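Person: Please comment on this record:
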Amino acid sequence: VAYRETITQRAEFNYTHRKQTGGSGQYGRVAGWIEPIADEEYVFDNKVTGGSIPTQFIAACEKGFRACLAKGPKMEFPVTGIKIVINDGASHTVDSSDIAFQAAARGAFREGYAKAKPVIHEPVMKVVVETPTEFQGPVIGLMNQRRGMIVGAQDEGPMSVIEAHVPLAEMFGFSTVLRSSTQGKAQFTMEFAMYKLVPQSIAEKIAEEVAARKKNGLSRGGHRHRPGTDQGEPGECKVSRSGRPGAVRGAEFLRERHPGSHGDADLPVSRREHQAPRQVPERDEARGPHGFQCL
């Protein structure tokens, strides 16, 4: 589901990015505010006066702010419906650069976004169901169970047309349930309608799912070892008695390719040593080398 993040109130920011390295450092200060906007997804407004931020760095500030919209700080969903205004800042003749002001803009965005009470929006679909009139009640009940809001219902002869707004997250599996509830006589169409605020209970579940995905993403592919064994589970790294990851598997490979190599005493017995010796068929003296009988 394509969730979105947005803010609910105005919040100010005043962030200074300062980094000193061996050579020239990085310095940039950005001040202003962010506020929600309903008509557009993103608006950047430059109200800097007096040259507190040089003109050549304004584009870098806008680029830094725009980079933060792809992944919101709250749950890493895209950010929409936000207006950013900068009205002050500071620069340094040597240390200021495009990179410094992009970093300052990103820090300013995180600072203001945290104070603007961010929320999650979910896509809401316009669902139109055409069903026989005798199943109108069960169909409306299915809509209500899926957090749907009935917009209207009208009868067209023996059929009834029901229109509702239902969150996309609740529409998975709806086709199967609708057929079973109407003996296969109903059909529906669905199209995007709007984005709407997610209820608090649903937002908490989404936050738990996002946290679980982050946790699984960090642990996936990690090297975990069970103490006292050198057997690896899926996603684990085998560890030899010497403590070097992969040494056991690598040694087995070398022994198979190069029997009699050094270090055999500390390595597992190769599988090749357990194989039965190859049986060479005895040569029949009455037949030639190619199997033809000699006369």
